[in-house]
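1st attempt posting a full record on here, be nice pls
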Amino acid sequence: MDVSELNDIPSKINDLLAIHKKVDILVSCAGVSNRGGVMECSVDVDIKVMLINYLGHVALTKGENYYFATNKISHFNLFQHFFLQ
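the predicted structure (as C-alpha cells):
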C-alpha cells in the first residue's frame, strides 16, 4: 500500500476487511529518508518526506481507528522510531 496516496487509504482498509473480516493489530512502518543537506534539498523533497512519514500514517490511523472504535477494540499503541546519524 502506498501511504502517499492519502485518498486511497480508506478503500485499501475496506479491501483488507473484505478479505480478512477482522484486524487485531496494525503495524505501520512506511517511511522515507533524505540524506541531502538542508540547503541543497528542494521543498518538493521535504513535502514528500512529510507526506509519507507523517500524513500517510495519520490517514491510516484515522481509518483503522474508525474500525477499532466501531468494533469496540479499546487498545491502541503508537510507536515512532527515530534514527540519527
